[in-house]
């Protein structure tokens, strides 16, 4: 039961071929069997999940189904507030924190009748890309437990990849959904900035934070996005728009125009990873897609701009708490927060100027193409605890490499999705698609094409 997609599970429920209780028990059994090794969850809500599943089954018997998510067991990253349940942010400081109200997306899941399995592990305060959490345990990749699942939404990705949940919510400030999606061989979608409420999501960098989804398939991502999107008046950044209709819109049949920007998105890629991604693009061309060369000159400064904005905003948010309780932060996160004092106000303003220029360049590019493609990660999946990686004899910083290609879409606030497109070293490789603002259907349509062309081997753990 736990390997079915959200869409398949919803259809089985509709045909009375299974029940929410059966789906939920299958996920809970999977958690019980594997989570001591994988550490995907910080909190498992077994009793609440069973209660929610029984309520969903009762609604279905009475003909009061709330929608396609009703009765489906999902996981929620532990930086999204759940009223009355400990929400830790992956930090020892919040080990006993009980929020008074739900995050906006948690309310939407409840409205749609989803079953909440528990809170997933994350890099402390979502400030990292490995989910090597010193307080709640190192999260491990189910494809190879000696390798990182990525982060900061590593627990959500592992839960979906390992069949512990049929889908999960995560957050993404500098790639934190797409990095673990690529490393764990699933789909990860970061929507347009403001398309999904960030209310009740513990901030990292307020102008970069996005809430999104991790799922088995592109169709599942559309289904989950349509349920959690829409305007939230409590958040100034929330776009005044109704919920998305991505599941319907991504069914368009027009051939895809795929932009290829070589100087940044294909620069210094591990040769084996590049071969897999270019092979996938070649197969998409054979299936009817068109590749269009693009130039985006300001991408050369994107890493600088993202780093300055992210670290400065993070440190500004943490400033008071860090002064009082900095010794309770993990070492790597403490160093990151300290680094946020280094950029000057001039640096921050220069970064915002770069951001504005890059937004304009992407906007113009999307008048010529539907999506832009790149590898999600330029390197092979690193091992747990590996601070540097080797690529063709060159030593590179692990964290910088993991964020390098996924950061620009956060900087300019456009949708981006990672979808698995092959294997290297018996580990999944992801291809990333970026789309125009509000273009979630385009990136998921491209992801769906890849799914039809590429099939990963079964995961073994």
Automatic annotation (TrEMBL):
> Is Transferase included in the keywords of this UniProt record?
yes
Tell me which Pfam families the record gives: Amidase (PF01425)
Q: Report the superkingdom from the record.
A: Bacteria
The entry lists its GO molecular-function terms as: transferase activity
InterPro entries recorded for this chain? Answer: Amidase, Amidase_dom, AS_sf
Alphabetically ordered keywords of this record: Transferase
Q: Tell me where in this chain the Amidase domain is found.
A: 22-444
Q: What is the designated name of this protein?
A: Amidase, Asp-tRNAAsn/Glu-tRNAGln amidotransferase A subunit
- The UniProt record lists the keyword GTP-binding: no
Here the segments flagged for biased composition (Basic and acidic residues) are: 49-64
Organism expressing this protein natively: Brachybacterium faecium (strain ATCC 43885 / DSM 4810 / JCM 11609 / LMG 19847 / NBRC 14762 / NCIMB 9860 / 6-10)
> What are the start and end residues of every segment in region (Disordered)?
49-69
